[in-house]
Amino acid sequence: MKEVVVHPERCVGCMQCMIACATAHSKAKSLFAATLESPLPKPRVHVGVGQYDEGFPNRCRHCDPAPCLLACLPGAISRDLSTNTVLIDPDRCINCATCAMVCPFGVLRYHEEGSAPPGKTVAVKCDNCIGRQEAGLAPACVEVCKSGALTFEELSEAMRRKTNEISRTVSVAAEPQDLSPGFSLLNTMKKSLIQVRTG
Amino acid sequence: MAYVIIGNGVAGVSAAESIRQLDRDGRIVMIGDETEIPYCRPMISLVLEGAIPADRLTMRADNFYETMGIEPVLGRRVDAIDVAQKTVRVGGDTEIPYTKLLIASGADPRPITADGLNLKNIFFMRTQAQVRDMLQVLPDARRALVLGGGLVGFKAAYGLLRRGLNVTMLIRSGYPLSMQADETAGGIILQELRRKGLDVKVGTEAVAFGGNGAVREAHLFDGDRTPCDMVVIGKGVLPALSFVPRERIEIDLGIVIDRHMRTSAEDVYAAGDVAEGVDVARKTRWVNAIWPEAVTQGRLAGINMAGRPVSGEGSLGRNVIRIFDLDILTGGVVTPPDNDGYDVFQTFDGSRNTYRKLVFQGDRLVGVVLVNDIEQGGVFLSVMSSKTPVTASREGLLSRKFNYKQLLK
Ligand SMILES: Cc1cc2nc3c(=O)[nH]c(=O)nc-3n(C[C@H](O)[C@H](O)[C@H](O)COP(=O)(O)OP(=O)(O)OC[C@H]3O[C@@H](n4cnc5c(N)ncnc54)[C@H](O)[C@@H]3O)c2cc1C
Q1: CATH 3.30.390.30 segments of chain B
Q2: Which residue of A has its CA nearest to B378?
Q3: Å from CA of A34 to ligand 1 middle
Q4: Which fold has domain B2-108+238-305?
């Protein structure tokens, strides 16, 4: 099973994933038509800004066990086992915000939504683009990400790669190795800019 | 192996499910006073309000007991536990033996003392049955009185207001939600309640009720009288443990539990509103009678009862509630004693009507109050419950741009 893997050190904060996400969750599935829809489609991935202006694509982790799933009062949250996705049923949701209270990552938002009953405010978060996956497509945020901060792959494969990368750096003889030098440079620049600005 | 669970609320249900995951064959007996299919207690006020029908309250399928292989004993009360013989007595006569026992009997509404409480149309709001009774009198009721400004009091008042009644709330403290919110947030909430048409009287109490058969008026502490056709008492809850032998099982306010949900008696566990564990923010034992805690404790109890020693990180008092156009999220120590060692950071934005307050003890976050912009509240609370030191700038935390990344290096 492929899953979305986040590589925060590679995020440049371009927010393309947010736009792609909102579009993928619109009725029209095209950016320009989506902007005319009501309710206006909103992103379910949120690029946050770190202490030094570095970007961070904050996305539902689909935790297991998931605190939101366990705490949900009306039992509106469930797990789709075939894609390992924590899903919210907008019909059952009562907009009580208990999920926001227990989510350690702050990924929930509350608003009207195309897939919810008209006029109803519901809890909304990443659904791993489950519809796109059924059609053989990768989640929209991954497809659009140009910097490799979001990838869609077998978790075991991603872990093997990461293990290898790390193991190459732990030998005493090894030079400290930066796994993504370009991005580190960018983030260092951002950091020094802030430090210059704030003195 | 015989697991006996007292209470078929969410703590009991979560425990039963966890036991079943780990032990396919053990006998599970669940004894529950209420006969409905396990339901979501916090949602009963939505039935009062008319937002959902009662059949939407169920939290598990109709055949829950069957599919889980549970023997339900419903509509009966446990009246004694014999920890030496390892039996539970039900309905005065039947003895049920246990190998492992879970007490998940929840809480009962805190009673009040006042004259005239025997009059008709004075209600508590804890069970589905009580809401059904309230619905019966609604057609003839015009004025309702709600005692208490806590979460349940507000939900009752809101529901009755939505049903078209004139609603008066009597709150003994100076502001609503005084157990959850600090004074500033309380003031904002009070204003909102009044603006939306609730008649809220603070700093007062009912001392007597008058009427001929049914309640017609309340006499207040300051000599005032308030007419009413119905009364809802929402003055908090107390652990339901009248059947628990105090000399054998340690009780403080609730049943004292350790990190494995064990009580002081061997093979006896407790979870949910009836239990009292260590609160991570207060650093002392505390009863946190909230749904997410009941779920967590129920699961942990079940896992431990089935033989896996898993420990919890302690409980954390927290609440979230939407009050008309306000969203309120609070947790931990929101009004620290002003003598020792707390640092308070707060910000208020009048134009957006947001208020944010963070209480620190050194580098540990121990309290949070958010009025509106509550989406990141869970991040603060999880930092609190994991006792993670927070080095990020306090201004950053107070900013509405705050997000998870700011906690990372
Ligand atoms: C109106 C209302 C709104 C609420 N809103 C919220 C909210 O928004 N968020 C939140 O976190 N919490 C809320 N709560 C609190 C929440 O409902 C409780 O924390 C939760 O239900 C506790 O679950 P429990 O299983 O421990 O106990 P309970 O749900 O009380 O279940 C215990 C069961 O045991 C039975 N029982 C008790 N004694 C015996 C006996 N001797 N023999 C047999 N059976 C017995 C009881 O009848 C009951 O069915 C609300 C509560 C109410 C009443």
Answers
A1: 333-408
A2: A101
A3: 44
A4: FAD/NAD(P)-binding domain (3.50.50)
| Beta-carbon separation of A56 and B377 below 8 A | no
Q: At B264, which amino acid appears?
A: S
Residue-level pLDDT at A169:
75
Say if residue B213's pLDDT is above 90: yes
Q: Give the E-state strand segments of B148-229 in sequence order.
A: 166-171, 199-202, 206-210, 217-220, 225-227
Q: Kindly compute the dihedral angle of the four CA atoms of residues B11, B15, B16, B22, in this order, to the nearest 10 degrees.
A: 170
Which CATH number applies to B122-233?
Answer: 3.50.50.60
The response to whether residue B81 sits with its C-beta less than 6 Å from ligand 1 reads: no
Maximum Cα interatomic distance, chain A, rounded to a whole number of Å: 63
What six digits make up the tokens of A151? 């990838």
B49 touches chain A (CB under 8 A): no
Residues of A in contact with B377 (CB under 8 A): 100-101, 106
Q: How far is the CA of B87 from the centre of ligand 1 (A)?
A: 24
pLDDT at position A182: 82
| Residue A196 predicted with pLDDT over 90 | no
- What is the CATH code for B333-408? 3.30.390.30
| Number of helical (H) and strand (E) elements in chain B, helices listed first | 9, 26
**Rounded mean pLDDT, A102-119:** 96
As a 3-state breakdown, chain B gives helix, strand, coil percent values, each rounded to 5, of: 25, 30, 45
ipTM of model: 0.95
Check B405 against A98: CB less than 8 A apart: no
